[in-house]
Write a structure and sequence with these properties.
Elements: H1 2-14, H2 16-27, H3 39-51, E1 56-61, E2 75-82, E3 85-95, E4 114-115, E5 118-120, H4 124-144, E6 149-157, H5 168-173, E7 184-187, E8 195-200, E9 202-211, H6 226-247, E10 263-271, E11 291-300, H7 306-323, E12 328-337, E13 340-341, H8 347-360, E14 365-369, H9 375-380, E15 387-389, E16 404-406, H10 407-425
Parallel strand pairs: 3-6, 3-7, 7-15, 8-14
Antiparallel strand pairs: 1-2, 2-6, 4-5, 5-16, 8-13, 9-11, 9-12, 10-11
Helix pairs in contact: 1-4, 1-10, 2-4, 4-10, 6-7, 8-10
The structure holds zinc ion.
Length: about 425
Protein backbone atom coordinates (compact mmCIF):
# COMPACT_ATOMS: atom_id res chain seq x y z
CA UNK A 1 0.00 0.00 0.00
CA UNK A 2 2.93 2.34 0.70
CA UNK A 3 4.12 1.73 -2.83
CA UNK A 4 0.71 2.41 -4.26
CA UNK A 5 0.40 5.64 -2.24
CA UNK A 6 3.73 6.86 -3.60
CA UNK A 7 2.85 5.81 -7.11
CA UNK A 8 -0.51 7.62 -6.96
CA UNK A 9 0.99 10.81 -5.56
CA UNK A 10 3.67 10.74 -8.27
CA UNK A 11 0.95 10.43 -10.93
CA UNK A 12 -0.87 13.40 -9.35
CA UNK A 13 2.32 15.49 -9.27
CA UNK A 14 3.02 14.65 -12.91
CA UNK A 15 -0.40 16.11 -13.82
CA UNK A 16 0.14 19.51 -12.22
CA UNK A 17 0.23 21.38 -15.56
CA UNK A 18 -2.75 19.40 -16.88
CA UNK A 19 -4.70 20.34 -13.77
CA UNK A 20 -3.88 24.03 -14.21
CA UNK A 21 -4.79 23.94 -17.92
CA UNK A 22 -8.08 22.14 -17.27
CA UNK A 23 -9.06 24.70 -14.62
CA UNK A 24 -8.17 27.55 -16.97
CA UNK A 25 -10.17 26.04 -19.84
CA UNK A 26 -13.25 25.65 -17.61
CA UNK A 27 -12.99 29.20 -16.25
CA UNK A 28 -12.70 30.61 -19.78
CA UNK A 29 -16.24 29.41 -20.57
CA UNK A 30 -18.28 31.95 -18.54
CA UNK A 31 -21.23 29.85 -17.39
CA UNK A 32 -22.94 32.73 -15.61
CA UNK A 33 -25.99 31.94 -13.51
CA UNK A 34 -28.36 33.69 -13.75
CA UNK A 35 -29.32 33.34 -16.50
CA UNK A 36 -27.45 30.06 -17.16
CA UNK A 37 -25.18 30.88 -20.06
CA UNK A 38 -23.09 28.50 -22.15
CA UNK A 39 -23.88 25.40 -20.09
CA UNK A 40 -24.10 23.26 -23.21
CA UNK A 41 -20.80 24.53 -24.54
CA UNK A 42 -19.08 23.69 -21.26
CA UNK A 43 -20.43 20.14 -20.91
CA UNK A 44 -19.78 19.36 -24.60
CA UNK A 45 -16.21 20.56 -24.35
CA UNK A 46 -15.59 18.72 -21.07
CA UNK A 47 -17.33 15.60 -22.38
CA UNK A 48 -14.99 15.44 -25.38
CA UNK A 49 -11.98 16.03 -23.20
CA UNK A 50 -12.98 13.22 -20.84
CA UNK A 51 -13.94 10.78 -23.61
CA UNK A 52 -10.46 11.17 -25.00
CA UNK A 53 -9.17 9.96 -21.61
CA UNK A 54 -11.39 6.87 -21.69
CA UNK A 55 -14.43 8.07 -19.73
CA UNK A 56 -17.95 7.10 -20.80
CA UNK A 57 -19.84 10.37 -21.00
CA UNK A 58 -23.53 11.20 -20.88
CA UNK A 59 -24.90 14.72 -21.43
CA UNK A 60 -28.26 15.22 -19.77
CA UNK A 61 -30.59 18.18 -20.13
CA UNK A 62 -32.85 18.77 -17.11
CA UNK A 63 -35.85 19.19 -19.37
CA UNK A 64 -38.76 20.84 -17.59
CA UNK A 65 -36.84 21.49 -14.36
CA UNK A 66 -37.08 24.87 -12.60
CA UNK A 67 -34.95 27.26 -14.66
CA UNK A 68 -34.80 25.10 -17.80
CA UNK A 69 -35.89 26.82 -21.03
CA UNK A 70 -35.08 26.58 -24.73
CA UNK A 71 -33.13 29.83 -24.54
CA UNK A 72 -31.21 28.68 -21.43
CA UNK A 73 -31.30 24.88 -21.28
CA UNK A 74 -29.92 23.25 -18.13
CA UNK A 75 -27.20 20.83 -19.29
CA UNK A 76 -25.37 18.36 -17.06
CA UNK A 77 -22.56 15.89 -17.61
CA UNK A 78 -22.14 12.48 -15.99
CA UNK A 79 -18.92 10.58 -16.77
CA UNK A 80 -18.08 7.07 -15.65
CA UNK A 81 -14.87 5.04 -15.61
CA UNK A 82 -15.45 1.39 -14.75
CA UNK A 83 -12.84 -0.78 -13.05
CA UNK A 84 -11.92 -4.31 -13.98
CA UNK A 85 -14.16 -6.03 -11.43
CA UNK A 86 -17.30 -5.39 -9.40
CA UNK A 87 -17.12 -3.03 -6.45
CA UNK A 88 -18.44 0.21 -5.08
CA UNK A 89 -18.92 3.48 -6.92
CA UNK A 90 -17.32 6.77 -5.86
CA UNK A 91 -18.94 9.86 -7.36
CA UNK A 92 -17.43 13.37 -7.49
CA UNK A 93 -20.01 16.09 -8.11
CA UNK A 94 -19.08 19.65 -9.05
CA UNK A 95 -21.37 22.43 -10.21
CA UNK A 96 -20.28 24.17 -13.39
CA UNK A 97 -22.28 27.40 -12.98
CA UNK A 98 -20.72 30.58 -11.58
CA UNK A 99 -22.24 33.70 -10.03
CA UNK A 100 -22.15 37.20 -11.52
CA UNK A 101 -18.82 39.00 -11.66
CA UNK A 102 -19.68 42.14 -9.64
CA UNK A 103 -17.31 45.09 -9.20
CA UNK A 104 -13.81 45.49 -7.79
CA UNK A 105 -11.77 43.12 -9.97
CA UNK A 106 -8.14 43.82 -10.79
CA UNK A 107 -7.89 40.66 -12.95
CA UNK A 108 -9.93 39.77 -16.02
CA UNK A 109 -12.61 37.50 -14.47
CA UNK A 110 -12.59 35.05 -17.37
CA UNK A 111 -8.94 35.04 -18.46
CA UNK A 112 -7.80 32.60 -15.74
CA UNK A 113 -4.47 34.44 -15.35
CA UNK A 114 -1.78 32.90 -13.18
CA UNK A 115 0.09 35.02 -10.66
CA UNK A 116 2.16 33.88 -7.66
CA UNK A 117 0.94 30.31 -7.82
CA UNK A 118 -2.72 31.28 -8.01
CA UNK A 119 -5.28 31.11 -10.82
CA UNK A 120 -7.59 34.14 -10.82
CA UNK A 121 -11.12 34.24 -12.18
CA UNK A 122 -14.81 33.83 -11.48
CA UNK A 123 -15.40 30.19 -10.62
CA UNK A 124 -11.74 29.28 -9.95
CA UNK A 125 -12.46 28.62 -6.28
CA UNK A 126 -16.23 28.04 -6.46
CA UNK A 127 -15.80 25.55 -8.00
CA UNK A 128 -14.26 24.81 -11.37
CA UNK A 129 -10.87 24.36 -9.66
CA UNK A 130 -12.43 21.69 -7.43
CA UNK A 131 -14.10 19.98 -10.37
CA UNK A 132 -10.81 19.88 -12.30
CA UNK A 133 -9.05 18.58 -9.18
CA UNK A 134 -11.47 15.64 -8.91
CA UNK A 135 -11.05 14.73 -12.60
CA UNK A 136 -7.26 14.82 -12.39
CA UNK A 137 -7.31 12.86 -9.10
CA UNK A 138 -9.36 10.13 -10.77
CA UNK A 139 -7.13 10.01 -13.84
CA UNK A 140 -3.98 9.83 -11.69
CA UNK A 141 -5.48 7.01 -9.62
CA UNK A 142 -6.49 5.07 -12.75
CA UNK A 143 -3.00 5.47 -14.26
CA UNK A 144 -1.34 4.23 -11.06
CA UNK A 145 -3.80 1.42 -10.44
CA UNK A 146 -5.72 0.43 -13.60
CA UNK A 147 -6.89 -2.83 -12.01
CA UNK A 148 -9.39 -1.35 -9.58
CA UNK A 149 -12.79 -2.50 -8.33
CA UNK A 150 -16.10 -0.73 -8.92
CA UNK A 151 -16.28 2.54 -10.79
CA UNK A 152 -15.53 6.24 -10.58
CA UNK A 153 -18.05 8.87 -11.64
CA UNK A 154 -17.71 12.59 -12.14
CA UNK A 155 -20.67 14.87 -12.70
CA UNK A 156 -20.57 18.52 -13.75
CA UNK A 157 -23.96 19.96 -12.93
CA UNK A 158 -25.99 23.09 -13.49
CA UNK A 159 -27.57 25.65 -11.23
CA UNK A 160 -26.12 24.95 -7.78
CA UNK A 161 -25.97 28.69 -7.27
CA UNK A 162 -29.73 28.94 -7.81
CA UNK A 163 -30.87 25.89 -5.87
CA UNK A 164 -29.65 22.99 -8.02
CA UNK A 165 -33.07 22.03 -9.40
CA UNK A 166 -31.80 21.86 -12.98
CA UNK A 167 -28.70 20.02 -11.81
CA UNK A 168 -28.21 17.60 -8.91
CA UNK A 169 -31.91 17.57 -7.94
CA UNK A 170 -32.82 16.50 -11.47
CA UNK A 171 -30.14 13.80 -11.60
CA UNK A 172 -31.24 12.55 -8.16
CA UNK A 173 -34.84 12.31 -9.40
CA UNK A 174 -33.58 10.28 -12.36
CA UNK A 175 -31.90 7.83 -9.98
CA UNK A 176 -28.27 8.87 -10.45
CA UNK A 177 -27.75 9.10 -6.66
CA UNK A 178 -29.64 5.99 -5.72
CA UNK A 179 -27.53 4.19 -3.04
CA UNK A 180 -27.74 1.00 -5.09
CA UNK A 181 -26.02 2.78 -7.94
CA UNK A 182 -23.57 5.06 -6.07
CA UNK A 183 -22.14 4.45 -2.59
CA UNK A 184 -19.84 7.43 -1.89
CA UNK A 185 -20.17 11.08 -2.92
CA UNK A 186 -17.61 13.87 -2.61
CA UNK A 187 -18.57 17.41 -3.61
CA UNK A 188 -15.34 19.39 -4.17
CA UNK A 189 -16.73 22.74 -2.97
CA UNK A 190 -14.05 25.13 -1.64
CA UNK A 191 -13.97 24.21 2.04
CA UNK A 192 -10.16 24.37 2.45
CA UNK A 193 -7.95 21.36 1.76
CA UNK A 194 -7.68 20.25 5.41
CA UNK A 195 -11.38 20.33 6.30
CA UNK A 196 -14.18 17.86 5.74
CA UNK A 197 -17.63 19.37 5.47
CA UNK A 198 -20.26 16.99 6.83
CA UNK A 199 -23.37 18.93 5.86
CA UNK A 200 -25.25 22.17 6.28
CA UNK A 201 -27.83 24.03 8.37
CA UNK A 202 -31.46 24.20 7.26
CA UNK A 203 -33.12 27.12 5.52
CA UNK A 204 -36.64 28.55 5.33
CA UNK A 205 -37.48 31.46 3.07
CA UNK A 206 -40.85 33.15 3.38
CA UNK A 207 -42.55 36.33 2.29
CA UNK A 208 -44.49 38.20 4.94
CA UNK A 209 -47.05 40.75 3.87
CA UNK A 210 -48.92 43.31 5.97
CA UNK A 211 -52.07 44.83 4.56
CA UNK A 212 -53.46 48.36 4.82
CA UNK A 213 -55.91 50.70 3.10
CA UNK A 214 -54.92 53.35 0.58
CA UNK A 215 -55.84 56.99 1.22
CA UNK A 216 -54.51 60.49 0.49
CA UNK A 217 -51.21 61.17 2.24
CA UNK A 218 -52.52 64.45 3.64
CA UNK A 219 -55.27 62.54 5.49
CA UNK A 220 -53.55 59.34 6.57
CA UNK A 221 -56.20 58.83 9.29
CA UNK A 222 -58.62 57.93 6.51
CA UNK A 223 -56.42 54.99 5.49
CA UNK A 224 -54.38 52.35 7.28
CA UNK A 225 -50.63 52.16 6.68
CA UNK A 226 -49.24 48.73 5.83
CA UNK A 227 -45.75 50.19 6.36
CA UNK A 228 -46.50 51.15 9.97
CA UNK A 229 -47.87 47.66 10.52
CA UNK A 230 -44.67 46.21 9.09
CA UNK A 231 -42.68 48.52 11.36
CA UNK A 232 -44.44 46.93 14.32
CA UNK A 233 -43.50 43.49 12.98
CA UNK A 234 -39.83 44.48 12.70
CA UNK A 235 -39.91 45.95 16.20
CA UNK A 236 -41.34 42.74 17.61
CA UNK A 237 -38.60 40.79 15.80
CA UNK A 238 -35.94 42.95 17.43
CA UNK A 239 -37.61 42.73 20.83
CA UNK A 240 -38.33 38.99 21.00
CA UNK A 241 -37.23 36.95 17.98
CA UNK A 242 -33.58 37.96 17.58
CA UNK A 243 -32.80 37.42 21.30
CA UNK A 244 -34.52 34.02 21.11
CA UNK A 245 -32.48 32.97 18.06
CA UNK A 246 -29.23 34.07 19.70
CA UNK A 247 -29.91 31.57 22.50
CA UNK A 248 -30.29 28.60 20.17
CA UNK A 249 -26.87 26.99 19.84
CA UNK A 250 -25.99 23.91 17.88
CA UNK A 251 -23.65 21.00 18.50
CA UNK A 252 -23.04 20.89 14.72
CA UNK A 253 -19.46 22.08 13.97
CA UNK A 254 -20.73 25.02 11.90
CA UNK A 255 -18.22 27.55 10.57
CA UNK A 256 -17.83 30.45 10.96
CA UNK A 257 -18.49 30.69 14.72
CA UNK A 258 -21.32 33.23 14.28
CA UNK A 259 -23.35 30.63 12.39
CA UNK A 260 -23.39 28.19 15.34
CA UNK A 261 -26.68 29.80 16.35
CA UNK A 262 -29.99 30.21 14.55
CA UNK A 263 -29.95 33.24 12.27
CA UNK A 264 -32.46 35.42 10.47
CA UNK A 265 -31.82 37.80 7.61
CA UNK A 266 -34.39 40.11 6.07
CA UNK A 267 -33.52 39.86 2.40
CA UNK A 268 -35.73 42.71 1.20
CA UNK A 269 -38.43 45.16 2.19
CA UNK A 270 -40.99 46.76 -0.09
CA UNK A 271 -43.95 48.93 0.75
CA UNK A 272 -46.16 51.57 -0.80
CA UNK A 273 -45.43 52.89 -4.24
CA UNK A 274 -42.95 51.05 -6.45
CA UNK A 275 -39.45 52.51 -6.89
CA UNK A 276 -39.47 55.19 -9.63
CA UNK A 277 -38.18 54.03 -13.03
CA UNK A 278 -34.57 55.07 -13.80
CA UNK A 279 -34.57 58.54 -15.29
CA UNK A 280 -37.94 59.56 -13.82
CA UNK A 281 -37.53 63.02 -12.36
CA UNK A 282 -41.01 63.77 -10.94
CA UNK A 283 -42.25 63.49 -7.37
CA UNK A 284 -43.99 60.44 -5.98
CA UNK A 285 -47.71 60.71 -5.20
CA UNK A 286 -48.91 61.12 -1.60
CA UNK A 287 -50.56 57.82 -0.72
CA UNK A 288 -50.97 55.68 2.35
CA UNK A 289 -49.35 52.27 1.66
CA UNK A 290 -51.88 49.49 1.32
CA UNK A 291 -49.23 46.75 1.16
CA UNK A 292 -45.80 46.06 2.63
CA UNK A 293 -43.71 42.94 2.18
CA UNK A 294 -40.50 41.49 3.54
CA UNK A 295 -38.66 38.34 2.50
CA UNK A 296 -37.06 36.50 5.40
CA UNK A 297 -34.21 34.01 5.27
CA UNK A 298 -34.20 31.91 8.41
CA UNK A 299 -31.30 29.45 8.89
CA UNK A 300 -31.95 26.72 11.41
CA UNK A 301 -30.10 24.02 13.28
CA UNK A 302 -30.29 20.25 13.25
CA UNK A 303 -31.71 20.47 16.79
CA UNK A 304 -34.70 22.50 15.52
CA UNK A 305 -37.86 21.23 13.84
CA UNK A 306 -38.95 23.24 10.81
CA UNK A 307 -42.52 23.29 12.12
CA UNK A 308 -41.32 25.09 15.26
CA UNK A 309 -39.29 27.49 13.11
CA UNK A 310 -42.44 28.46 11.21
CA UNK A 311 -44.59 28.56 14.35
CA UNK A 312 -42.23 31.08 15.96
CA UNK A 313 -42.88 33.55 13.16
CA UNK A 314 -46.59 32.82 13.10
CA UNK A 315 -46.95 33.44 16.84
CA UNK A 316 -44.91 36.64 16.52
CA UNK A 317 -47.39 37.88 13.91
CA UNK A 318 -50.27 36.91 16.19
CA UNK A 319 -48.76 38.88 19.08
CA UNK A 320 -48.57 41.97 16.87
CA UNK A 321 -52.12 41.38 15.67
CA UNK A 322 -53.42 41.22 19.24
CA UNK A 323 -52.06 44.72 19.88
CA UNK A 324 -52.91 46.49 16.62
CA UNK A 325 -56.48 47.09 15.49
CA UNK A 326 -57.01 46.29 11.82
CA UNK A 327 -53.73 44.33 11.55
CA UNK A 328 -53.89 41.74 8.79
CA UNK A 329 -51.06 39.67 7.40
CA UNK A 330 -50.09 36.73 5.26
CA UNK A 331 -47.05 34.44 5.40
CA UNK A 332 -46.12 32.72 2.14
CA UNK A 333 -43.62 29.85 2.08
CA UNK A 334 -41.03 30.21 -0.66
CA UNK A 335 -38.37 27.57 -0.11
CA UNK A 336 -37.20 25.19 2.58
CA UNK A 337 -34.40 22.68 3.13
CA UNK A 338 -33.89 20.68 6.31
CA UNK A 339 -30.40 20.41 7.81
CA UNK A 340 -28.16 17.58 6.65
CA UNK A 341 -25.18 16.05 8.44
CA UNK A 342 -23.24 12.92 7.52
CA UNK A 343 -21.94 10.79 10.37
CA UNK A 344 -18.23 11.16 11.20
CA UNK A 345 -17.99 7.37 11.02
CA UNK A 346 -19.39 7.15 7.49
CA UNK A 347 -16.98 5.37 5.10
CA UNK A 348 -16.38 8.38 2.85
CA UNK A 349 -15.55 10.54 5.88
CA UNK A 350 -13.12 8.01 7.34
CA UNK A 351 -11.33 7.46 4.02
CA UNK A 352 -11.02 11.19 3.39
CA UNK A 353 -9.73 11.82 6.92
CA UNK A 354 -7.08 9.10 6.50
CA UNK A 355 -6.05 10.51 3.10
CA UNK A 356 -5.73 14.05 4.50
CA UNK A 357 -3.43 12.73 7.24
CA UNK A 358 -1.25 10.98 4.64
CA UNK A 359 -0.96 13.96 2.30
CA UNK A 360 -0.92 16.89 4.71
CA UNK A 361 0.44 15.19 7.83
CA UNK A 362 -2.38 16.51 10.01
CA UNK A 363 -5.80 15.47 11.16
CA UNK A 364 -8.71 17.12 9.37
CA UNK A 365 -11.13 19.54 10.94
CA UNK A 366 -14.79 18.58 10.62
CA UNK A 367 -17.08 21.45 9.68
CA UNK A 368 -20.67 22.15 8.72
CA UNK A 369 -21.58 24.83 6.18
CA UNK A 370 -23.77 27.76 7.25
CA UNK A 371 -25.59 27.64 3.89
CA UNK A 372 -26.90 24.72 1.89
CA UNK A 373 -25.35 23.20 -1.22
CA UNK A 374 -26.15 20.25 -3.46
CA UNK A 375 -25.71 17.67 -0.66
CA UNK A 376 -29.35 18.44 0.24
CA UNK A 377 -30.62 16.81 -2.96
CA UNK A 378 -28.32 13.80 -2.71
CA UNK A 379 -29.50 13.31 0.88
CA UNK A 380 -33.22 14.04 0.46
CA UNK A 381 -34.06 12.94 -3.08
CA UNK A 382 -31.26 10.44 -3.64
CA UNK A 383 -31.51 9.02 -0.09
CA UNK A 384 -27.73 8.66 -0.14
CA UNK A 385 -26.27 9.74 3.21
CA UNK A 386 -22.62 8.86 2.67
CA UNK A 387 -21.77 12.28 1.21
CA UNK A 388 -19.38 15.12 2.10
CA UNK A 389 -18.01 18.30 0.65
CA UNK A 390 -14.24 18.28 0.38
CA UNK A 391 -12.16 20.39 -1.96
CA UNK A 392 -9.37 22.91 -2.44
CA UNK A 393 -9.98 26.64 -2.40
CA UNK A 394 -10.67 29.04 0.43
CA UNK A 395 -14.34 29.32 1.30
CA UNK A 396 -14.25 33.07 2.01
CA UNK A 397 -13.11 33.83 -1.55
CA UNK A 398 -16.25 32.39 -3.14
CA UNK A 399 -18.38 34.99 -4.94
CA UNK A 400 -15.79 37.74 -4.21
CA UNK A 401 -13.91 39.98 -6.65
CA UNK A 402 -10.48 38.61 -7.62
CA UNK A 403 -11.56 35.09 -6.66
CA UNK A 404 -8.59 32.71 -6.92
CA UNK A 405 -7.46 29.18 -6.23
CA UNK A 406 -3.96 28.10 -5.16
CA UNK A 407 -2.28 25.63 -7.49
CA UNK A 408 -0.45 23.85 -4.64
CA UNK A 409 -3.77 23.47 -2.80
CA UNK A 410 -5.34 21.86 -5.86
CA UNK A 411 -2.44 19.42 -6.21
CA UNK A 412 -2.64 18.52 -2.49
CA UNK A 413 -6.40 17.99 -2.69
CA UNK A 414 -6.03 15.90 -5.84
CA UNK A 415 -3.62 13.71 -3.87
CA UNK A 416 -6.18 13.35 -1.09
CA UNK A 417 -8.98 12.46 -3.52
CA UNK A 418 -6.83 9.94 -5.38
CA UNK A 419 -5.91 8.23 -2.09
CA UNK A 420 -9.60 8.09 -1.16
CA UNK A 421 -10.15 6.18 -4.40
CA UNK A 422 -7.30 3.83 -3.53
CA UNK A 423 -8.85 3.19 -0.12
CA UNK A 424 -12.39 2.60 -1.40
CA UNK A 425 -11.72 0.95 -4.78
CA UNK A 426 -8.12 -0.16 -4.72
CA UNK A 427 -8.46 -3.44 -2.89
ZN1 LIG B 1 -20.15 26.31 -5.06
Amino acid sequence: MVDLTEKILAEVAARRDTLVALTQDLVRIPTLNPPGERYRELVEWLGQRMEAQGWQVELIRATGAIGDSDSHPRWNLVARFAGTRPGEVVHFNGHHDVVEVGNGWTHDPFAAEIEDGRIYGRGTCDMKGGLATAIIAAEAFIAANPDFAGAIEVSATADEESGGYGGVAYLAEQGYFNPERVQHVIIPEPLNKDRICLGHRGVWWAEIETKGRIAHGSMPFLGDSAIRHMGAVLEEMERTLYPLLAQKRTDMPVVPEGAKQSTLNINSIHGGEPEPAPGFTGFPAPCVADRARIVIDRRFLIEEDIRDVKDEVKSLMERVKAERPGFEYEIRDMHEVVPSMTDEDAPVVRSTAAAIEKVLGQRPAYVVSPGTYDQKHIDRIGRLHNCIAYGPGILDLAHQPDEWIGIDDMVDSAGVMALVLAELLGR
